[in-house]
Amino acid sequence: MPVATRFFPQLYPWLFVALWSTGFIGAKYGLPDAQPLTFLSLRYALVLLLMGAIVLWTRAPWPARGSRAWGHIAVSGLLVHGVYLGGVFMAIGHGLPAGITALLVGLQPLLTALGAGLLLGERVRPAQWLGLLLGLTGVSLVLAHKVAAGLGGAALLAMLLPAFVALLGITAGTLYQKRFCPAFDLRTGSLIQFLPCLFLTLLAAWAGGESLQVHWSGQFFFALGWLVLVLSLGAVSLLNVLIRQGSAVHVASLFYLVPPTTAVFAWALFGETLHGLALAGMGVAVAGVWLARR
Prior knowledge:
Layout: H1 3-30, H2 36-58, H3 69-93, H4 98-105, H5 108-120, H6 126-142, H7 144-150, H8 156-180, H9 186-207, H10 218-245, H11 248-253, H12 258-270, H13 276-292
């Protein structure tokens, strides 16, 4: 087997973490110019157009007609993309700092580990539980100063609720996809996943009173293009590959690295300072992920 064939799959988890972490940065760039669900609807529509062209060009296979795979793939997409992204964008759009949003969603590995044991029959070893707890501790250390600075105001519940909904969505979606549709063609599967997301997000935007208007600035174009090409096409495809290849606990443990990585990007792009406690927390989170993925 060529060295590259053996080497590159080893990089998939770390590439996924790097790409997925930029989603919070993209939201911070784009949300000043569009309301959360309007922004997401545009993102979904562009993904469907691009992926539809790829499906036609490559003649990608669809699930068998009449099979339950269509429904399972659609439900997993609604949970992993629709509920998760909708909650994250609404939380940030309502004023919750991106770091705190990332911290709350960072609880996902613990919930997934519990659900994997109960629903999928995956045995979670004590060392993995220890790794998951270390990861949570590390994430808390990284973002402790942001939590202390951001948990105030009368609208706290309105900001936190969408983040918790996002947490439940990504957890349930990971477990559902691993249980009912772990393997499907990534090209046609993306169409099946994102189409109901677009329909329901537009419906929710209309019901929530969003104006569906956008200020087309250069910053918004960059944020939208990045989220479509890098996140929705690149990172989501990697996520599907990782779910197909590994256990739910292994995949979920990677999400502990997202808040620390987001903090690094925020430092590089927006000048946010990383304190010594945050640096120590990054080390603890990395050690926890390594232990949980052994």
